Structure formats: C-alpha cells, structure tokens
What does this fold into?
Amino acid sequence: MQKFTNGMPANLVPGEWVKSRKSEANGTCVEAVKLPQGRVALRNSTDPSGPALVFTAAEVDAFLDGAKNGEFDRFATVNW
It folds into this structure.
C-alpha cells in the first residue's frame, strides 16, 4: 500500500481529483481525492504538483459537519 503523507507532491497522489462545480469557471479551488481507509487529500488547484494535505476520515467528517453548520462562514469572502 502506498504511503500518503502531508506535504508530499499532490501530483504523486493517484486518483480523480474533484473540485466544486462553482469553481470550474475560474479554475481556482481546493481539490480533493479519496484515499484508502476513508482518508482524503486536498490540494490547491492552481498548484497541482504542490503539497498535499492528508486528513483522516474523522477529521474530514468533523470539518464537513462544521461547514454544513456554518461554523466557517466567517472565512468566506463572498456574501451568499
């Protein structure tokens, strides 16, 4: 099994990277790819070979729950 670590070049992480449809027009977004054991890697779409951040399934679940509950809305630069 391949070892995935924080900071590894994102272009070395296999799989289909996914980004929000909202960002497709301008090409700037965070992209995600699913890894084994429910982990997820994230990268900057403008730097696809830059560093990947790797999160456990529990970390991803906690972040998504917070995002769904509006806990990170203060970081948005666009008022919805």
